[in-house]
Design brief:
alpha/beta, 17 helices, six-stranded parallel sheet
């Protein structure tokens, strides 16, 4: 009999698709079902053996893991960011810096048997809150989508990519903007080009595209763009050190040479001048390393080849699955006791979810929420109508 795994999150975000579902699906011993937090009901808990809360920071998520725990389901918290220590200068800070959300994160952990994370720092900080005081360190599987042996680079110009949300604009302005301006002559002569996705540098003679909501569309764009180099600067703070080295996997997968900040998490996997390039977070260092590659493009292919060898050796699906299941054998073997539906007390989660969002807006904006809340509700309704009309057309 298959182990039945219920995965919950407010939305089907990349953390769910790439971090969790990509590892658990297509395994014959498991039957995996994802449901949005507000859609989960008593029948889902009865059906499940294991309940996984992805980035659980909602009161509704807490209710789910509490009920699952009481029904003797094996509960897991998946965490790929240090959500309790979000930097104060990000757009998402107002949301995650809320005292109630931080409390819910800890409470979800306290009702989880184990913590599943992708960075050792997160395990060190938060595994102590779990029932078993246990943290599981896992990788994210990544397939090679653009084999370097078949990739044809654009060398005239040599194409350089920066992809990062608007949360990274501060880093972009501090490090990358001055670097790009130093390459003004090369850009003007057509020797090199810079493309930005998400954060906008507002520099003439560079291209900018809005952030891709679809990860698949983003990868397709990068693959077809024939980029040679991908930039991944990050701030050197505890929060960023606790993140995952996803850019290394992305760039290597699609045949792009990554240049990264010389700090964790990239120092965990990148070997300088072998499978990528590490830079000090100084303008001159980034300029110097990029210039070396531009002047010696023959080095690009060799480093990407090494990076792709790492992917084959350490990040293929079978290896990642085997490592995970060895650490959490319950994913393959745990069978929860039978329970009656009437014994599961799970209050309507839609009400809980939206009431908490309302309270959050009131805590963030205070008296201003009188104006903010109606606007946001109206905006949401309009977006929903547009989406419906779009489908009909």
């Amino acid at each position: 009999m298959k182990t039945k795994i219920l995965v919950e999150c407010p939305a089907l975000i990349s953390s769910v698709k790439i971090g969790v579902l990509s590892v658990l699906e297509n395994r014959k011993e498991c039957e995996v079902k994802f449901k949005r937090t507000i859609e989960i009901n008593e029948k889902d808990i009865v059906w499940s053996d294991i309940v996984i809360s992805v980035r659980g920071c909602e009161r509704a998520s807490l209710k789910i893991v509490k009920v699952a725990n009481k029904a003797k389901r094996f509960t897991i918290m998946f965490l790929d960011d240090d959500l309790i220590n979000i930097p104060l200068d990000l757009d998402s800070t107002k949301y995650y810096n809320d005292r109630e959300l931080k409390k819910y994160i800890e409470k979800v952990l306290e009702n989880s048997n184990v913590l599943w994370a992708v960075n050792p720092r997160i395990i060190k900080k938060y595994s102590k809150f779990t029932i078993e005081k246990k943290g599981i360190l896992s990788k994210v599987p990544m397939e090679i989508e653009n084999d370097i042996e078949r990739v044809e680079f654009s060398t005239n110009p040599l194409k350089i990519l920066y992809a990062g949300s608007i949360d990274h604009e501060k880093t972009l302005k501090k490090i990358i903007n001055p670097v790009v301006k130093k390459f003004n002559d090369e850009i003007s002569s057509g020797k090199v080009s810079f493309t930005f996705i998400g954060a906008n540098p507002h520099i003439k003679n560079t291209k900018h595209y809005k952030y891709f909501e679809s990860y698949e569309k983003y990868k397709k764009f990068v693959k077809e763009g024939r980029f040679s180099i991908g930039l991944a600067p990050i701030e050197i703070t505890e929060f960023y050190k606790s993140k995952y080295y996803n850019k290394f996997l992305e760039y290597s997968s699609i045949g792009v040479l990554g240049i990264y900040t010389n700090s964790e998490p990239y120092k965990l996997v990148v070997r300088h001048n072998e499978n990528g390039i590490l830079c000090k977070n100084e303008v001159e260092s980034w300029y110097s390393e990029i210039k070396k590659v531009i002047d010696n493009p023959n080095k690009i292919r060799n480093m990407i080849k090494k990076a792709q060898e790492d992917l084959v050796k350490n990040y293929n699906l079978n290896i990642v699955q085997n490592e995970l299941f060895k650490q959490i054998p319950e994913l393959l073997t745990y069978k929860a006791p039978l329970v009656e539906l009437k014994s599961i007390k799970l209050k309507d989660l839609k009400y809980v979810f939206y009431m908490e969002r309302l309270k959050l807006l009131m805590r963030i904006y205070g008296l201003k929420s009188i104006y903010v809340i109606p606007y946001r509700v109206l905006k949401k309704i309009i977006k929903k109508i547009i989406k419906i009309l779009g489908k009909e057309i």
